[in-house]
Structure formats: structure tokens, C-alpha cells
Amino acid sequence: MAWARGLVGALRRALSKEAKQHVGTDRFGNNYYSVPEYKNWRGQTIREKRIVEAANKKEVDYEVGDIPSEWEAWIRKTRKTPPTMEEILKNEKKREDIKIKSQHLYEEEKLLSKGSKEELLAQPVQTQIKGHASAPYFGKEEPSVAPTSTGKIFQPGSWMPQGSKNPNQ
Fold first, then answer.
1. Comparing C-alpha atoms, which of 14, 8, 18 is closest to residue 38?
2. For the whole model, what pTM was predicted?
């Protein structure tokens, strides 16, 4: 069945004048292609496509970091030109430097907090939820069993809602 899909794809590409051009390969072995804008056999203009052929052919084996962010930006058309290997290496070095600096800052903050018991970073505030504001017992310790009323003539069970809109029933 896979051979039929390949045959149909090859036939479609041959008839549609779709020619993908190899743009680059990343360090994971993924290949990136660009299909320039072209007119099909009916005269319709087909927009440019950017395609990645993953080194891992199975979707199950795909991980989040398998496509570098520079190539992903190119695929999503947020950048016009494909990234160069020098650019990718430079950005990876920057990311590593940031990781090292943040780890160093975290350890320094940890050492300072041991000596002074005062941390540089504020701890999140712990709030205590006592109930919803629309609840009749909001702000009280717990709901009361005795009925509450603002009037002095309150009788429990004396009010009954009407079943319909007609008051004569």
C-alpha cells in the first residue's frame, strides 16, 4: 500500500510542476525543502511551501526539541531566509551561556539566603480561601444552623415559591 502512495505522490508532483528544492539539513538529520510559488495546470497560483522531512519517520518517535527553533521559525514563515549553521551554533552557545549564568545566580542566591535567612526572591504568597462572596456565610467561621433574617417576623417554611406565573393558581 505504501508503494501506491509513493506512486500517486510522484504522479501528482510530475503533473503539478511542483519541484522541491533542498534548503538545508540540521544536526539531527532532518531535511528542509522549499517549494517555490508556481501555477498549476488550471492556472491557479499555488503559494510557496516549506517542508521538513524528519529523520525519525514515525510520529511516535518525535520529541519536542527534535527541530531547532531557527528551522522551526523558517518552516512557520516567521523568518524569510533559512538559518545558517554558524547562526545555529552561535544561538546554541548563547543558550548554554544563559543556562550557566542562571545556575550560577541560583547557587549564589542560595548561599546568600543561608547566611541571612532573607531570600532575594520573594516567596509566593499563600492565600486562604474562606468561601465565595455570594455565599450567605462568607467571612464567618462556618455556616449557622439557625435561620438568619433581617426581619423580626421570620417563620421558617412560611414562604413557598409559586409554581407558575399566574397568581390565581
1. 18
2. 0.52
Q: Is the CB of residue 147 less than 8 Å from the CB of residue 156?
A: yes
Which H or E run includes 101?
Answer: helix 85-116
Domain boundaries, the chain: 14-58+68-82, 84-118
Note the pLDDT tens digit of each residue in 59-116. Answer: 666 677 778 889 989 999 999 999 998 998 899 999 999 999 999 988 888 887 776 6
Q: Are strands 21-25 and 45-46 parallel, antiparallel or unpaired?
A: unpaired
Rounded distance between C-alpha atoms, residue 51 and residue 75, angstroms: 7
Residue 60 CB: number of other CB atoms within 10 A?
Answer: 5
Nearest to 49 by CA among 79, 84, 71, 20: 20
